[in-house]
Amino acid sequence: MPYRAPAADYKFLLDHIVGYDDVVATERFGEATADMVSAILDEAAKMSNEVLGPLNRSGDLHPASLENGVVRTSPGFAEGYKAIAEGGWIGMAASPEYGGMGLPFSVQNAVNEMMGGACLSLQLNPLMSQGQIEALEHHASDAIKDVYLPKLISGEWCGTMNLTEPQAGSDVGALKSKAVNNGDGTYAISGQKIFISWGDNDFSENICHLVLARLPDGAAGTKGISLFMVPKLIPDESGKPSVANSLKVVSLEHKMGLHGSPTAVMQYDGATGWLVGKEGGGMAAMFTMMNNARVGVGGQGIAVAEAAYQHALGYAQDRKQGRAAVGDTILGHADVRRMLSQMKADVFTARAIAASCAAAIDMQTATGGAEWSARAALLTPIAKAFGTDTGIEIAEQGIQVHGGMGFIEETGAAQFLRDVRVTAIYEGTNGIQAMDLVARKMMDGGEAAYALIDEIESYAERCRSVVPELAAPVFSASETLRETTEWLVEQEMDDRFAGATAYLRLFARVLGGYFHLCSAKVAGADSARGRLARVYVKRLLPEHVGLAEQARQGAADLFALSEEDLIA
């Protein structure tokens, strides 16, 4: 089944579920009306379906390669990237001052998911540029902005982020890359970076690397790290790419999936760079890029979940096997119907969480309100972790729907799982997301979490007379979440961390119940969305009980199991 971008689902979410009307009511985003967004989503869906979708398999079968120091991209990727750039899809949320559209992040999030579902390997390229654009808008000097932002927004140049080193993965503070002040406003950057997504390509005029490095007097750990713009080709006085910089792609990683996306090992040998932000302010600047990128990566998980679901559904509609209860294909078998209905229910859950997070980010941007900042911060790790976990789980279920043919590469079912698996790892592993949720995001004593739980319970109460069979379980689950949160904020960090992953999933499960309840109330209990909500509330929401129990176990039993016990 050819990929079909979920524009209709996003219109429903933005119009009825996640509070996008509040975003449009702000002065900042008042022009991004429902009619305008609907037209944008339709156009993005058309481009995703017709231009990017056919490239997905090609990227897997014909990976990017390194030939004599030059990265050769997969067949058709140059044309696909050109369509993305010329359509203005890279600079959707960027400042109009530099050529962007100034649209809400909510719209960019929706379009990115549709492009990712069509071809994740290629969509990763503009996602990196979008993150770099945001970091430069917030932290770079006017001189750097004037040179780089128009080119990044137009897509003439591409951006990357360079954090990881062989000895410094999640522990970024252990990096060894060095920066030396040249005394002329530039710095000499030296070191090696690994896992650099789209570290080079053969279709853009220039590659702009944001590189973390330490000055000679930089403090140990993350506080001594600075951020630098290090272009592949140094711009001349007119801003055009000129002299080659002292950097190179050492090799491309041989990966489990995402074969069309070149993941580079980068070497910098005294390369010329420009400071972005303040000395020692590298992590603050990079986190500006990373926070929204985490929502974007969550969207990548959802994108693959949608594509894998569509692929499995198409197979089930065609495959005839055994005596079905309904019809003459395996879609009529109860267990296959169970898998597909739960897959669809969780795609909606993950998408609604990400869309709600994006709307909160927009409200934070438009109003500067502390409550919106707290809401966006709380939802970000949930959107990233649950979105990517959902992508992996649904891709795996898609293989199961295919049966033996799912294990055969020619069907394409396995590619979804291979491609999406990394999303739970990069931009901060999902374990780190969970630890962030129960630690940094609970520094307010759980205030932001309680505010959201209050909203869920209030809404569920109002729905008791409309859809009581859904409202009551959602209210009950939210009470369990409240009690677990109350327990959590009283614990020491190790005890919080031991249950962090379960707590994050518990939160996501309750949010899913809330969003499905909203959907059923808006569309009607007897509508397709109402029937899907019943599947979620009756079959998936009950997981919250076991998750709450896991979250409240503490760390004692984990550390009581010795290293010798693990070896035995």
What would you say this structure looks like, in words?
This protein is α+β, with helices and mostly antiparallel strands. The protein has a domain of 267 residues: Butyryl-CoA Dehydrogenase, subunit A, domain 3 (Up-down Bundle), CATH 1.20.140.10. Helices cover 56% and strands 12% of the residues. The protein is built from 21 helices and eleven strands. Strands 3, 4, 5, 6, 7, 10 and 11 form a seven-stranded mixed β-sheet that branches. A two-stranded antiparallel ribbon has the order 1-2. A two-stranded antiparallel ribbon has the order 8-9. Helix 11 crosses helix 17, helix 15 packs antiparallel against helix 17 and helix 15 runs parallel beside helix 19. The relative contact order is 0.09. The model has no long low-confidence stretch (mean pLDDT 96).
CATH superfamily of the domain at 285-551: Butyryl-CoA Dehydrogenase, subunit A, domain 3
What's the helix count?
Answer: 21
Radius of gyration: 24 Å
CATH topology group of the domain at 285-551: Butyryl-CoA Dehydrogenase, subunit A, domain 3
What is the CATH architecture annotation of the domain at 285-551? Up-down Bundle
Structural class: alpha+beta
Overall strand count: 11
CATH class of the domain at 285-551: Mainly Alpha
Shape: globular
Helical proportion, percent range: 55-70%
Beta strand %: 5-15%
Ends distance? 48 Å
Task: Give average pLDDT, whole number.
Answer: 96
